[in-house]
Prior knowledge:
mainly beta, seven-stranded mixed sheet, globular
Amino acid sequence: QVQLVESGGGLVQAGGSLRLSCAVFRSMYSSNAMGWYRQAPGKQRELVATITNGKSTNYADSVKGRFTISRDNANDRVYLQMNNLKPEDTAVYYCNANIGYRPPMDYWGKGTLVTVSS
């Protein structure tokens, strides 16, 4: 069974930086698109950033210029560099990978908590 494992969350002061990592295990196929989503307390899960296997990227307006998504195709990993963090970035961050074909399927990690103090 495919498993996604996130790491890198934690507590940071406003203006600080964190780097999230996500590794894909037990997949027969390389990932298609990969991405990061987040869910703040009392809110719905929202897209943060996505990256295709060709490394085209897409960002939520709220993180543009502060966050950078990247991936290592050879090792099926995706990263999220988060700079100039704000208290409103506090959330559980989830890794997503779209894997396989006919049809491809979406897989999710269990999440990693990012807390930004003011």
